[in-house]
Structures are given as structure tokens and as C-alpha cells.
């Protein structure tokens, strides 16, 4: 089942950059300090970037 678009495609920067909705993107690595996943800008919940 496909989720309904909440942001119109014309202004959806994430969709323009990646061709996917945010919930469809797997970023991979997790921060060793806060254990949250890194986003597309390599940020995490504690903003340490794993340092």
C-alpha cells in the first residue's frame, strides 16, 4: 500500500534529490554514541556525527 503524499511534489526537496520519499530511504550506519541512524547530511540525534 502506498502512502499518501503529504508534501506536494513541486516543493518536496527530498523527493527531488533522492527520487524517493523520506520513509523509503535507508541511510545505513548508526552513531556509536546515541545509536540513531545518520541522515543524508551525516547528522544524528546527538549531532556528534560519531566523533
SSE arrangement:
Layout: H1 13-18
Question: Care to describe what's here?
Answer:
This protein has 51 residues and is mostly loops. The protein has one domain (11-51). Helices cover 12% and strands 0% of the residues. The radius of gyration is 13 Å and the shape is elongated.
Q: Quick gist of this model?
A:
The protein is largely without helices or strands. It contains one helix and no strands.
Find the structural class using helix and strand composition.
little secondary structure
Bulk shape:
elongated
The amount of beta strand, in percent, is: under 5%
Q: What radius of gyration results from the CA coordinates?
A: 13 Å
Biggest sheet character? none
Task: Report the uncertain regions.
Answer: none
Number of strands: 0
Q: Number of helical runs?
A: 1
List keywords for this structure.
51 residues; 1 helix; 12% helix; elongated
